[in-house]
Structure formats: structure tokens, C-alpha cells
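Reopening this one. Same input as before:
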Amino acid sequence: MRMRSSAGGLDLREFSFEEEAPGQEVRAVERRVLLETLASKLPPGAISFSSKLKSIAGQGPEGTLLELQDGRRLRSKVVVGCDGVNSPIARWMGFTEPRFVGHMAFRGLADYAGAGGQPFEPKVNYIYGRGLRAGFVPVSPTKVYWFICFNRPTPGPKNTDAAALKREALELVRGWPDDLVAVMRSTPDDAVVKTPLVDRWLWPGVAPPASRGGVVLVGDAWHPMTPNLGQGACCALEDAVVLARRLAPAVLAGGDVGEAMSGYERERWGRVFPLTARAGLVGALVQWGNPLVCAVRDGVVIPRLVRLGPFLEHTNFECGLLEPVAPSP
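Same output, byte for byte:
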């Protein structure tokens, strides 16, 4: 990992994970590749695309009735709501809308396929400014992921002009290190997105339950968190393993599906609430714009005080394995 200041690209600190936190690692994966890999393990025809959910039309002894935006209706014994931060299932279950945290993010995926491959070492690059930070990391021999996080009091109007979004992102980091700017310029316009950063803290005794009957929430639909710990998608994968391990025996043996879902919620709450809170607090700290505070961060905190092992302690979580479950005779 290499940490730099936006002012002249001054190096603040550089280290290897093996030296500072033996056993820790970073794996950057293009989400499309991850999804295609997971989908390839399913039976043919298991996925129905272009089937966006409109609402839950009803719930009864025969299951849950789902209404799709194209007018179709589906009745299901088990509904797993993994439909993101704007989940209609979460709204139906009584959850509030995710809270805007005062930061926006640009994200992009540079493509070097036509240039014979991307030129970067396997290294996480962070660059810190005042109320503004950026970073980039290779995700494949030809792709490089990058981001910019910046303060904004309100999300503002949504811009769908891809070329304008890219220009806006480049303007934010004018004068920043050349390698960051080069990565951004190597990004196709349609591979740049701008989104508000949001979260939802699951306060004990206040947040609604994550399961109701045969309906349960996972991932961002239940616990959206800011990306400051790099744990949003990772936490959703943990959810999936824990839920499947509890749900499969109940479904195959004709057991209590609702109890299996409640057990999943009890097991996961103690993990997702602290992560959401920690991600939000880290984001508030690294997005400071005060010049004096930023000078202390660049001159003292990053070079001398931050230690990678304690900072990555939240990644040391064992969610268990999925064991094959024999169907009932």
C-alpha cells in the first residue's frame, strides 16, 4: 500500500501487508467477474433477468406474493431481499431510507486492453487532500479500479451525462498525481458512476427485525454501510453463507423457515452493527477538510501512528463453511 498527499504527490508512507499484518491481504475483484463466477455454479435457467421487484403484494399461509414491475406476480415460500440500498422489501418491512452521510463518490474502471495491459504493480494507492481523497488499484491484467470521495452537503441533482461525469471527476483532482489522472483518462465514459454514500445504523431495540415470516434481508438491503472499510460486499457474502447454512436444513427437512431466518439475524447483528458504525466514523475522520487537521494527519498520524494490523482487525471474521445437507428421505 502506498499513501500520498495530494500536494505534489508527496509520499506519506508505503508498506507491504506481509510486513505490517502477516496473514492479511487485499484482493481487488471486478464485480462483474465475481457475479458471473457465482452465477456459473447455478443450474441453467435458474436466474430470471429483467425482473425488477415493484412490491410485496401480500403474505399468507401459501407464501409471499411478489409483484414485478412488468406486471408479473410470483408466489414464493422463501424471499431473500438482497436488492440493495433502495430495497422495496426493506421498505415493506418498515426500515427507514438509508441516511446520506455528507460524502459523494466517483467510481470508475479503467480499461487498458488495447494498450497491452495495465502498467501498475499490485499495490493499493491512496491519495489524501482536504475533504477529498482518491485511490486506485489494479483488478486484472487489463483493468484498474479508481475512486474519488468528496464532501457535499446534499447529493444534488442526478447527472446521467457520462462524459460530463468524467469531466467533473477530473476537475476535482486537477493538479493531483499524474498516475491517478492517467488512470481516470483511460476509463471509458460509460464506466464512471457518481453516487451518494449512505448507511443505516441498526440500533438495538429500534431497528425493525430483518426477517418476517418467509422474508429476510441480506447485504445492503439490510445494513448499507459506507465503503471506508472495504467491507460492504464482503459482509453481504458473509450474510449469504450464514443464511444458507441455517436455511438449507429447514427447507430440505420441512422445518421452521422463519426460525432459521431469525437465527441468521441474531447471529449476524453483532457483526454488521459494529462494522456499519466503524465505517461511518472512519469516513468522518478521513474526510476532514480543516487545513491544520490535514497537516497533522499527513505529518504525524499516517507516517507514525497508523498500524495496519489493528486497523484491519475487522476483517478477521470466520463465517463458517457450507456443508452439504442430505435431503430428507
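So the earlier flakiness isn't reproducible anymore. For the record, DSSP finds nine helices and 13 strands in the chain.
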